[in-house]
Amino acid sequence: MFILNKSFSRISINLPQIVKYSVNVTDPSNIFVFKSNFTSEEQRKILHILNGSNPDQLSRFNVSQNRIKNLVSWKNKKGPFRSLNDVLEVEGLGEKVLEKICEKIITEDKVDETKIKANNINKRLKQLVIPPISGNVTDELQSAVGIHLGPVGSSWAKLSRTENKLNSWNYEEFSSLPKKMLPTDTFDLVRIDIFTSNILKVEMAIRIIQKLPVADFYIFEATPIMSPQGTTQSASVVSYTQQLELTSMLIALINTSVQHNAFLRKIDSNGTSVKTIQNRVLHLRSKIPARLFRTLVGTEKVAAVTTVTELVENNGTCMDFMLPCTPITLEQQLRNAFVSQTPANKELLGQALMLVVSFMDLCIYKNPVSLAAISPNKNKT
Questions:
Q1: Burial of residue 15 (number of CB atoms within 10 Å: 0-12, 13-18, 19+)
Q2: Which residues sit opposite 146 in a β-bridge?
Q3: 231 and 269: one domain?
Q4: Partners of residue 156 on adjacent β-strands
Q5: pTM over 0.90, yes/no
Q6: Same domain, 159 and 116
Q7: Are residues 199 and 95 in the same domain?
Q8: DSSP 2-28
Q9: Res 308 pLDDT > 60
Q10: How far is 48 from 144, CA to CA, in rounded Å?
Q11: Cellular component GO terms, alphabetically (predicted)?
């Protein structure tokens, strides 16, 4: 008796290796058990497709017309498939055929998920940058300049795609640019002051353009809409208005500059007249750099000097945290120049650097870490 049991045990152990199907002892009505490496989640997806697809949709998965008819006939008689074991009851569907169908369904599902993710990324990119950029831009862009305009001055930073290198980094203070005076005693005095102020802003814009490095695109941060509370403070209104005016001047100068607009250089070299001007200026949505670099508390920006110093000196890594962006490379000369600045000028320089790094990581590299960092759902499970 002992020998008989031992022999039977040995046969039972080897049985799955020599037969395609085994008996389903838990469900006597179904004599087949489909042995596969698909996870429970994958099996649910497969059953959902098989139960919910019409004949045309099923043909996508390399299922012959005869097998499709048999699948439909089985479902009409017995209802939806509850497990892959049920599918084996369909005439003409052996284990190998079913496995191929399952693999095809899972592969198609993964492709669809990839397309959905890509579409979601593209939708988010359209919301991040204005005007929306095309695939040609993301493929061909080799450098960008981030331009920051603040109350005390303007700064810019050029980042090249090769090695994510910071090539140029500088600023221009606004100490020589007076604020517009409020209306005083006579209309003529106001008119003269506004005229003088506009002339000075034009001169300031020209000085910035003369120092601005050449790149494929120039990135501004979109100016936030002034809240009703801010309109009650005349100083805020003046600063806000001057920033909009100076931004408009810089955009016009950049797009019409033969030096800064490569399209104009190409047209000019052919000796033909310029009929259209291709825009080289993009706007990143307001406060995106602050969100990416965690310098936004509530709705207010806080000082970014510490974060920028970490990015410049340690390539964005330290013992306590890692910045959610691609590490930058830069010459020691630029690093030393930044370290020697006053805190106010460091802040000015830092805003331009954070702007161009945000644009490259989010819109050009499509860095998943960066995209996750600005997602409102990043803390949800």
A1: exposed
A2: 157, 219
A3: yes
A4: 147, 170
A5: no
A6: no
A7: no
A8: HHHHHHHHHHHHHHHHH-S----TT-T
A9: yes
A10: 47
A11: mitochondrial nucleoid
The span from the CA of 247 to the CA of 148, in Å, is 9
| Angle, CA of 369, 363 and 261, to the nearest 5° | 150
| Residue spans of alpha helices (H) in 29-134 | 40-52, 55-58, 65-78, 84-87, 95-128
Two tokens at 117?
A: 């993710």
Question: What per-residue confidence (pLDDT) applies to 35?
Answer: 58
Q: Which residues of 202-223 are buried (b: 16+ CB within 10 A; e: fewer)?
A: eebbeebbeebeebebbbbbbe
The total number of structural domains that make up the chain: 2
Give Cβ neighbours of residue 141 (< 8 Å, ≥ 6 apart): 161, 216, 217, 364
Domain end residue (candidates: 127, 142, 165): 127
* Residues 25-46: tens digit of each pLDDT: 344 444 455 556 778 788 888 8
| Single-letter code of the amino acid located at 3 | I
Name the CA radius of gyration of the chain, rounded: 32
Please check whether residue 374 is in contact with residue 325, taking contact to mean a CB–CB distance below 8 angstroms: no
86, amino acid identity: D
Burial of 292 (0-12, 13-18, 19+ CB in 10 A): buried
Whole-angstrom distance, CA of residue 372 vs CA of residue 205? 36
CATH number at residue 186: 3.30.420.10
Q: Which domain holds residue 262?
A: 134-373
Q: What confidence tens digit (pLDDT) does each residue in 99-139 have? A: 888 888 888 766 555 444 545 555 555 578 888 887 777 88
3-state secondary structure at position 154: strand
The tokens of 79 are what?
């209802």
Q: For the chain, what's the residue count?
A: 381
Q: Is 65's pLDDT higher than 70?
A: yes
Confidence of residue 358 (pLDDT cuts 50, 70, 90): very high
Pick from 12, 17, 31: nearest CA to 86: 31
